[in-house]
Amino acid sequence: MKAIVIEQYGGKDQLTAKDVPKPEITEDQVLVELRATSINPIDWKLREGYLKEKLDFDFPIILGWDAAGVIKKTGSAVQNFKVGDRVFARPETTRNGTYAEYVAVDEYLLSHLPESISYEEAAAVPLAGLTAWQCLVDFSNVAEGDHVLVHAGSGGVGHFAIQIAKAFGATVSATASGQNQEWVEKLGVDRFIDYKVEDFSEVLSDVDIVVDTMGGEIQEKSYKVLKEGGRMPSIVQPPDDETASKHGVKAGFVWLEPDGDKLSKLADLIVEGKMQPTIGHQFNFSEQGLQEAHELSETHHAKGKIIISI
């Protein structure tokens, strides 16, 4: 099968097309013929070598951890899926990712893909959507009436976090650049903050939950707007326990745990019209396509999700 691999750490030019064997599946896995995948910051961070201590893989490495496609083969112990099923998943983080024509996926990570959701839309959801869900639902117990602040509301995780918070009945504020104001507000945001014009820490207060997608100074200033007992999940850097304690809030680092059942709940939100993946950019499955997609992701200014059609 064709795959886009890296043979060593480095820049986007390390992404090269290669013919590799189809994955072998275990008894509790399925073989998915991929129709689409997407780009996430973890992809190029691993490519550059920033994550080699946490994810110490042997080369060659196939990057990518969003899968949408059709089941071509099932293991003997697989019970809830069959050949021909449309599925999507956030597979385990291994060296055999989804920049490929086929990927092996554990059954417990799979979700059935409703007919009304395209492969491209589905590929946008797993990593970013599950991250947003785990920040808001699992870590923060978001509830009706909460005031939620989402940093970088126009990003992959951010645009899902806005919609999930609204689906749970929260009031949502979000930061983004002014050029994205119109479509971020269409996602349901109650208070839009153009970070180039306004300082969120001076215009907000009594916030129940801050979804930190930025870290650094933004994370530090976020303590100012949180009410006592508030929650701050971060997806970029572990918050300081002492600082969180001093402000009387719960803060912690969220490292995604893939989960097919939670992915099914996200699919339900899409079918019900409460959430819509935004495909901001789409590239073809080639060396050039992947290299251009990585270059865009590294700017941190991509709108919505970056999709690769396979």
UniProtKB/TrEMBL annotation:
Span of domain Enoyl reductase (ER): 10-308
GO molecular-function terms, A-Z: oxidoreductase activity
Domain of life: Bacteria
InterPro entries referenced in this protein's UniProt entry, alphabetically: ADH-like_N, ER, GroES-like_sf, NAD(P)-bd_dom_sf, Quin_OxRdtase/zeta-crystal_CS, YIM1/Zinc_Alcohol_DH_Fams
Gene3D superfamilies: Medium-chain alcohol dehydrogenases, catalytic domain, NAD(P)-binding Rossmann-like Domain
EC number: 1.-.-.-
Keywords: Oxidoreductase
Family annotation (Pfam families): ADH_N (PF08240), ADH_zinc_N_2 (PF13602)
Keyword Plastid among record annotations: no
UniProt cross-references to PANTHER family, sorted A to Z: ALCOHOL DEHYDROGENASE RELATED, RETICULON-4-INTERACTING PROTEIN 1, MITOCHONDRIAL
Protein name in UniProt: NADP-dependent oxidoreductase
Organism: Halobacillus naozhouensis
